């Protein structure tokens, strides 16, 4: 009887250990289903099936993306069965691999394609290289609405690395064999039994010191695919058998001692102690109190028997504590989740809830256990109001969806049926995850994409309008210059001033349009540089001579200080002149009369550094962040005295950046400003 109890306890313990292995495999399949559903119910995926937007694949379907979500194969199939997009990568190297031919054939014959909006498939596919976890989901919108546009298929190899991971996680020895290949005899025998009872776990001893549990994994069509065996040591049974053998030995010894005529008083004492031991074992079994121990008296056989029984109880107690520790680990794991987790029975009474769910419901576990899930006032949406849990007990299908609570938070809810050993549904596990931030991020991304599209449209519009305006402006400037030169006849002094103002205003407006055109080209990525080698000194002197008449009006001197080892640079000559003209013109514009503007050039490694320093009004600290921004001007009393569009410095920065350089400045109010930039001496071709 005692030995049968140990065998029964060993059977139960082994089933629980095998259950941990099955849970690990189910968790991997559940993760793949969850990730697949998250992608399949996404507006961007829904649109990609229709328009095959290259931006979607460039952003979302990179090799590192698949490696990051631990997916080997990603297949997009439309409703007609055509493959829209396919990618296969090696998770360990990140390199692309060919798509397995068997998967492509299963798409053609419809095995992996969803037939309706609720047709979801998961399981295994036996490929030539390795078995593969497969998850197939219909492609719907983010709101889980149709019509369905196709099927999204995710696959992950069940290779030796993943098998070793399961071994480490479950602390067990695992063997796996495919049903389509040769396997050991014990696996072949179990295959026939498991095929008739797919949800069954077969537990049987392998040897005197090892016991094994066999279970089956099914493919995507519900047929046998893999047989797994988990091996565990028979420590509990061996210790129990040893203890019972000792007990039998001592009982036999007692009978022999009685048969040869041991003294009656000693017989009474011995039998009374045996009865005491028997009563003790019976009491421990009935009360299930493993903390009790036999008192040890005398150094005889019964003493050793009692000691062995106490040792057996210690080991059983340790096993029980380990089981309790495992239960505590599961509870700690579930309590550590941010998701709300609730388990209900077929009567929709709460059996268990994790810490996050209890805090959300504002109720303790003791009060929550046993109450009707939907009747209690403490349970508010989204937990109880959105998923019809009763249907799950009828259909056996899991349900999920996104819902918005009264407080505005968005939740992703999933209800999964939990089955017992006989295959009947014993409860439903409901999880609820707050995805408000993710939804906000998706909305922000959409708005950002809209803004970027609007910005590109703006740049194209400005470029087109600039071209449309330049042609009539050139005509206005040309004819006004001819009138000013009195090519068509003499004009009065008043007429000459008016015509001069027309020419001056037209040139100012043309300069503004040219700047806008350049800026829009940069933003649209269409500004190309024409590199050529030119003498740096001659270009700096040209800028000085060009702007000297403007400087002379304010009695400002322009000085050039240039390293002797600098001769020529390779850059876009016209754009270099444009940058220097803007910087020197600004320095003259914002300098006081009788001031000094210094132009410096020195070699800095492979770069040339150009500086323009003035002794002018400087820039306030609060205005410095406006520099280099298009259409922005510093808000000071002095700057209001001068005309400007706010485009010059922005163009300077963009042109320098295109050359592979960078721009910086330093300024103190009333002490002047220094602008500097660097570009490669030999160009950035």
UniProtKB/TrEMBL annotation:
Residues 268-321 form the HAMP domain. Residues 302-336 form a coiled coil. It catalyses: ATP + protein L-histidine = ADP + protein N-phospho-L-histidine. CDD domains: HATPase_EvgS-ArcB-TorS-like, HisKA, PAS. Gene3D superfamilies: 1.10.287.130, 6.10.340.10, Histidine kinase-like ATPase, C-terminal domain, PAS domain. Its EC number is 2.7.13.3. Residues 397-447 form the PAC domain. PANTHER family: OSMOSENSING HISTIDINE PROTEIN KINASE SLN1, TWO-COMPONENT HISTIDINE PROTEIN KINASE. This is histidine kinase. It comes from Methanosarcina baikalica.
